Amino acid sequence: MLRLLLSSSPPAASSMSSAAALAWRRHLRGIKDAVIVHWKRVNLLRIHRNFLGEDLGHLGTKELQQLENQLDMSLRQIRSTKTQVMHGQISDLLRKEQMLLEANHELRRKLEECDATIERYSRTTKEQNQNVPNSSHHQAAQFEGVLDHSQCNNTLQIGYNPPEVTDHHGLQSSTQSHSGLFVPGTWVL
Questions:
Q1: Do the Cβ atoms of 132 and 140 come closer than 8 Å?
Q2: Domain K-box: where (predicted)?
């Protein structure tokens, strides 16, 4: 049918004007392009079904061998790409692991320094309490809670909070609001 359309010339070409003949040729070219696109689509669908292992009955031995070779090459390329992606992911994970190990080592070192500082402070306080005969045990009891790691707040808070002020009625007040709003005169980071 395509050959029929392409081989036919416009009706009464001698009687048509050149503009009409040009329009007729454009029309035929549009039909030809549409038919070519349709056949390409049909061919791609057939190839796709063949790659899926469907509709293979009409293929000969040579075509089946070519299809098998194409599938083998595609599979090798897919596996190679997958392997490269996995190697990249593994190297990223190894880098992250190394960074976490370094951070963990640094935190462990800081914790050991803090423990050593607390131990030195504890020994110094005990020595001072032993050297002063009239010392009350109030100071020792006061610092016991400080040295207990289970009650430690491990967050770092840097800033300035003014001391609480006692007014003339004996009530304590603070310039910092407990609502979490910023009050001039306080620093919080």
A1: no
A2: 27-117
The continuous run of DSSP H or E covering 18 comes out as helix 18-51
DSSP character at residue 149: G
* Inter-helix orientation angle 61-131/138-147, to 10°: 170
Angle CA(79)–CA(82)–CA(83) in degrees, nearest 5? 85
Tell me the two tokens of residue 98: 């190394």
Query: Nearest-CA neighbor of 47 among 32, 59, 34?
Result: 59
DSSP code at position 159 = E
Amino acid at residue number 42? V
Give the per-residue SS3 of 115-146. Answer: HHHHHHHHHHHHHHHHHCCCCCCHHHHHHHHH
pLDDT (tens digit per residue) in 60-97: 999 999 989 999 999 999 999 999 999 999 999 999 99
pTM of the model: 0.43
